[in-house]
Each structure stands twice: as structure tokens, then as C-alpha cells.
Amino acid sequence: MLRFILRRLLVAIPLLFFASVITFLLVINIGTPKKIEDAIAKPGHSQKQIDSLRRQFGTDKEPLDRYKEWVSGFVKGDWGKNYDNKEIRPLMWQRIQVTLRLLIAAQIMSVIFGVLVGIIGAIRQYTAFDYFMTFFAFLLYSIPAAVLAGFLKEWGAIKMNPWLRRPSMSTTVLIILALFGLVAGYLVMRNRYKYERVKPPSKYITGAAVGLGIAVGAIIIFKLGWDGNIYRQRNPKPLIPTVGQTTPGFDGTWWQRVQDYFWHMLLPSTALIMIGFAGYSRYMRASMLDVMSSDYVRTARAKGISEKRVVGLHGVRNALIPLITVVALDFGALLSGAIITETVFGWAGMGRFFSESLTQKDPRSLLAFVMVTALSVVIFNLIADIIYAQLDPRIRID
Amino acid sequence: MTTKRGKFAALAVGLAFIAASCGDDNKSDNTTATTSGATTGSSTASTTPAPSGGTVTYAAEQEYTAYNNATADQVLFANTLILNMVQPGPFISMPDLTFKLWEDMMVSAEVTSTDPQVVEYVIQPAAVWSDGEPIECADFYLAWISSNGKLEHANPDYTGPGQVDADGNEVPATLPDFNTASNTGYEDISSLECSADGKTVTTTYANKYADWQGLFGGLIPSHVVENKSGVADITTIDPAASSADSVAAGEVWSTGFSGFDPEMDLSGAWYSIDSFTAGQNLILKRNEAFYGTPGNLDEIVFLQVPDATAQPAALENGDVQVISPQPNADLVAQLQGIAGVTTSVEQGLTFEHYDFNEANPHLAKVEVRKALSLCINREEIVDTLVKPINPDATVLNNHIYVPSAADYKDNSGGLTRDVAAAKAQLESAGYTLGDDGIYVAADGSRLSLRLGRRDPNPRRQSTNELFIEQCKEAGIELTDDPAENFNAERLPASDYDIALFAWVATPFLSSNTSIYVPGGPQNWNSYSNPEIQTLFDQANAEFDAATRADLMNQIDQILWDDMATLPLFQFQEMVAYSDTVSGVVFNGPLGVTWNANEWAITA
Hints:
heterodimer; A: mainly alpha; flat; B: alpha+beta; 10-stranded mixed beta sheet; 4-stranded antiparallel beta sheet; disordered N terminus
């Protein structure tokens, strides 16, 4: 095991070296850094300024010298300065934290949702739920992130905030919500006793009552909780923002800051979850269907094992194996950020680091970005292999 | 049955959602008013016309990078937008491109002698930095020596004459002590003297510089540079020869001010930088030590919204109150559709133009250049490309001034499209119409020219397409000549026939000199008219604004007569703000925040 890990990490060194060479060749050929172009385009520009910028970007040196200079600095931890003359390494660390804060939660949520929807879709194949989720997944999967973000902003913030300022509901709405609880409770119970021969009506009534209770309780808690919300009293801004990571200058207790983070993360995370979950649910559904039609599941059923155990133990566990690889690789790619989501919601994470560096045509920033993300992919690939071997005893790593 | 129930459940959820988000909209308005009232102190609103206090958030596309915005690696507009409210300077650049003395800080700033030019600045005795130190002559002295271009030390990479770098440029033997972006104006000052109390500054010019009002804007506190560099007194630094002190001070000046450091980034004006969170926001708070009329707002927040398309939603949602994105037709339409938002699209300072390279034998003839100016339909180009953004957009008819400038004059002589006149011009230069409908010169060469532009740029591509189509009728063959490196490499190397790019009209009129005088560093057209040189020499030494404007318009008239370059239109700029904020005014040179001290919350 240790030898395997060491070997893989050693292989990563030449891999990263080649990646850096290719990236370097690409980035030095994408054109003159934007700052230099802009300086040239100014009337009465000074040659001294342009010379100074070219020294800053290193374009006055031969490519080989530039590469040598970059590599020797990079391995020593000096990643150079970016187009704004900021140190790249601390800047990147800052951006990584932002990206992870936004993406990890979203990623975990989309995996959970995706797996659940995939499992249900597979065991209840061709039911209304399955059709609806299939449609929904393909719809979300095909909507461009920027468009989805636009919808979320319009309905999740601009239209929602005025209402949230005093979340009162008309009697009609309250009745609809209560009815919804009632019907949902009843439906859950109906489903529970779908395959039973005796269908006790008292259970249905209890289910409906519990559903109604939950709905009414939620409404009461919601209304009570709102008026006492200190966060809202201290913050005159709209509750759900469309841009930014925190309220500028907001200074509250730990719990208030957590809420501030939460509301800022709400829309971008929702967008990411909606897009991410769609893919995982399709993946999980296909994998689950495959497993459920396999011989050992038929054998398990024939042995008289309960359906719960068949699905849970023999089905889901095996169906998860291929998904683990996908998820691990996706986690590896997290560090490259979510360019569109970060941009439209005004988050300064790795995705924006990349797009800014590319717009500025800044070689050192781009190289640093590629190195960090490549390393992350290598490591998570390794982790995927290890997990895979742990889950599937047929696979050995050595 | 399952299917039906499933549908019903889904429908119920959907209904509940819609009902919840639409219910009782009318009640919400009352709450909004109360909430913002509580923070803006609207109780005083009824008695005072401009209510004080509150926070306004501006959507900043780029983030703050440095307090010293005059170094070669900075000069960012994003910094200007913030420093407008922070750094003191004797003059304010007004929306009509004139300068106004800033009376909070200055008692006076006048030309006391014209030969040699002597300018005397008297600083208000009360003017201080936010740490209590006086704003004084030494601050002016630092600005001068940092940019006078005389303080240079040996370049360690320099090996000998003729040494060139990878790009084929000569390696300089010396490097500046102060890594300044521009020496313009400061290099013409031969001496700067301080009075004993440090409140009077006398500058004497070796060469006359009529744009002197633009100098000494955005002052840097010299005592901070002294503390950081260990130089005892900035004013003792020899302005003409590099010394250990000048190198030390230059190091701090050039690199010490990047990022935000509350100890160094002092305020000498209405607001101080209170905090800066990289990638997120920057907060300005009222400068408690300010000596003049204080700003209305308590706080101005620069919230980073890098994506222009995200700004309208942020404005509508109330995340920000003021935005100034680059306009396009969709963005303008979207903003105009938002209730409670005022949108104004303005013609900016950057203008598009065609440059005729006279090194080309065809373009060397004034008749050919005139023919091009006659066959192009600039109105159609503006109608197609600019009017969708701003219905009031116009063709630009001056090389030096834009219409928002007080001294703008149409010197084009009513130039409009006239194909017959264009043909007549060509024929008078000995061109004859060829069989393929394209004119041929007397020496047999076809009148075929390339329209160079930067790629990718859809607007410029469309501009060229229109120009090509329009001049085909006049028997001139034009072809699109896009190149990624056009602006950065081919333009400075004069590698083009006709170039399409943009210049920025600035309040510093003398900066136009390098574009139009014979052999000027940015005169890439080989355009040479000695009269232009004479007039610029005169105008750059003229201190009377009216006479100077007259000279500038004479220069412009010659540029039209020679048809050296052809201005097309200005780029549009915009500002949109929530009706809860008053006092927002567009300003080309300084950006929308130039008068943020006068913004107020009205709701």
C-alpha cells in the first residue's frame, strides 16, 4: 500500500513537469499581457512605463530563461507576482479557501441528492417520480449555469426579499400549506402500506394528522423565529443577496456570522447543487439498475432476504462503487473552481482567479493555477484508487 | 392511480411556492421604508435638504490594488474610483474636462509668472492627513521628484551598449529610482521651493506646461515614506541626481503602497479606507480628521461585482445602489426596465477612429484620404453600432475635444457621405476606374487597402464591414485585416494601411502632442505637417484657457484639412443608481465616484 502511494506520487513529478512545460508554452503564446497593451494604447504613454511593465511580466527575457526562472522560484515556494504585483502564493491560498467554502458543501449535497434520487428512480423505475426526476435532471443538466443563476436571482432574491422583509401569508396560502401537509402525510402512509394486505385506516389518519401538524408547526416556528432574528435587525440589506460572500463590514457574533455566510451561499450553492445533482442522479440510477438486475441480487431475493436488505446491502453498496470514482475525481477538480457560478455571483474563488489571469494574459498566475489544480487531481485520483480497492475486494493495489 | 397522486402533490408544492413568494407584496413596501429609515436617520430628513449619514454601496468591477496609483505597474481606474475620496490634490477634474480648484484644501493655486512659468500653491493651514500630520509642501516635493525622470540608478542587468532583450528592445543602462508611470509635466519643472511653514509651494518650470493644473493630484503622504524608508527629510533629496536617500525613498514609493495598510494609506480628504477584504469589498468611512465640508454619507462600500451582467440584478435586489458597467444594448434595456432605478448613458472619453498610414503610397495622397472620408458613412456606423446603446449618440467631429468638453467644436466642415465627390477626389489624383470597378493609380497599382484591427472584437469587425461595403461603391477596395497582436505590436511598428483603434480624450490637452506632431512617438502614421508642431508648441505654452482652446481647434482644423485620421464615435459609458440615492453625476476622467462626498440617501 505505502509503496503504491509512493510510486504514484513519484510518477506525479514528471507529470507535473510536463504539464508545466506545455502550459508554459501555451501561456507565453497567448499574447502580450493586457496591462502592456493598455499602456501602449494611452496617448502620451511613457516608454519607461512600458519597459517597467515588461520587466515585471518578464517578457523582456528569452523563453528558456523565463521558464528556468519560474521553475527555480516555484519549487522554492516563490511563485512570483501577478499582474497587479501581488504575491501569487498567498493570493491563491485565499482563493482556494473561498472556492472550497462554496464548493465542498454544494458538492456533498449534490452527491447526497443525486444518490437518493438515483436509488429511488431505479427501484421505482418508470413511475411518475422516475419520469419527473429524469425530466428534471435533463432539464437542469442542459440549462447553462448563467441562465440558471439568472432565474435564481430573479425568483430567489429579487422577488423573494421584499416578501421576506415581512413574511406574512394570506389565509389562502396558509390553507394551501396546511392541506399540502395533510395530503403529503396521507400519501406517505398509503405508500407505506402499498404492499400490505391489511390497510389500517387509522394509520392513514395518523399520517395525515402528523403531516398537518408538521405544516402548521413549521408556519408557527417560521413566524415566531423571524421577528426575533437579530441578524436581520442589525442588517438593513436584503436578506438573500445576489452577489458577494459576506455583508461588507458586518461584525456580529459567531452565530450571526454563520447566518451571514449561509444567506450569501444560498443562491450559488443552490445553482451548483441543481447542476451537480442532475449528473449524479443519472449515474447512480444507471449503476443501480445494472446491479439490481444482476444474478447475485436475484439469488439474494430467492434466498428470501427482505427487500430492504436486498436493496440496501446488495444493491446500493455495489452500485456506489463506480460512483465513488466519479465523485473522487470531481472533488479533485474542485480546486479549479466554478468559473461561471463564481463570476455571476461575485465570488472571488479559483474559477475567477483563472478567468482573471487569462483575461490579463498573466503567465505566472496561469502556471500557478495549473500546477495547483493538476496536483489536486493527481492526489484525488490516488485517493479514488485506494477507496475503490477498499470497496471492491476483487481489486488489489500493489 | 400513483401517477395522478404524484402529479397532484407536485402541483400542490408548486402552488404553495408561487403563493408564498407573491403574497402580500403591498405590505412589504412599508417595512422597507422603516428599515432603511432606521439606518439613515430619516427623522432629520424633513428639516435638512440633504440628509446626512447612511451607507451607499457601489458595484466595483475591479478591486483596489494600491494606494500609490502613479507607479508604472498600477495606474488603475479601479484605484482612482476609491482614491477620489481619499487622496488630496489641488484641483478636481470636472465632468466638462476643466479643472476646478479644490477649496477645502487649497487657498490658491496660480501662475504668478509666465516667463519662466512659475506656479504658486498655497495650502489651507488646517489641511491635515488623517493621522494629524499637516498636508504640506514636502508632499508636493515627493510627487515632483518621483516623476521628474532625473533620478536613475545603474541597471544591474546592463552589460553594454547594443544589448537587446528577448523582444529585440534595447536594455536600458539605468533604471528609475521611482518606478513612475509618467513623467509628463513633472519633467518640465526645474525647481520646487517650500516656504518655512511648509504651506506654500513654488514651482518653476524649465519648459512651459499649460496643463499644470493636472499635476499634483493624488498626493502621497511624504512623512509616511520618510518613516518607512528612514530618510530624515524628503525635501533634502537632490532632485537631479540619484542618491542613497532617493533610492530608499523610491523603493518605498514604488512598492510599499501596494495592497492596503491602514498605517500607510492615509486620507487627506473626505473618506478614509477603513477596511479592505481582498476579492470581496473595500469600505470607506468618513475621515474624522477632515478639515473641510464633511461628506454626507457615513460609509461608502465598494462591493466587488466583477461581472457586468450581474450588476443589474444586484442593483434591483438592493445589494448595491450605484453601478457603472460598460453598457451594451441588452444591459441598458434591462436597467431601464427596473422600477426605481435611474439609468443614464453618456458618451465617454474613449473614441474610435481610422488612422491612415501615409507610408502607403496611396494613402500618402491627401485626395485618397479625402475620398475615404467621403465614401464612409459614419452616421450609418453610429446608427448600427452605437445608437442601440445610446439613442443620443453622435458622430465625433473633433480630434482633441469630445462634445461633453466645454471647448468642443465641429471642425469637420459638415463632412457627410458623398460618393460622387469621393470619386472626383480620386480622379483629380490621377486615378482611373479599372474594369473590376476598382480605381487604379497612374502607376498601375490598384487602390486596395487593408483595414487593420485587433481580433477578436465584434464591434470593430462590424465597423470594418460597413466601411468596406460603403467604399466599394466609390471604387475603393478595402479588406478586413484582423490580428490578435494588432494593438500591441503591429500598431507601434506602423505595420498597417488603415488602422481602427481608440484614443482617450483627456483633460491634459498636451498629451495629444505625441500623436499628431511630425515624428511624435505615437504618430505611427508618418503624418507630418510642421504647422501642427508650431501650433502645439504655442498651445502647450499658453496659459489662457480660451486662447489655448482656440489653438487646439486650429490644430483640429488642420487635421481635418489634411485628413490625417478620421474620428468615428465615442465609446458609451453609463451610470445607473437606485432612486434612494441622490447626487450621482457622471464624470469621464475621474469616474462616477468623483463627487461621492455629495451623495446622499433620500428615502
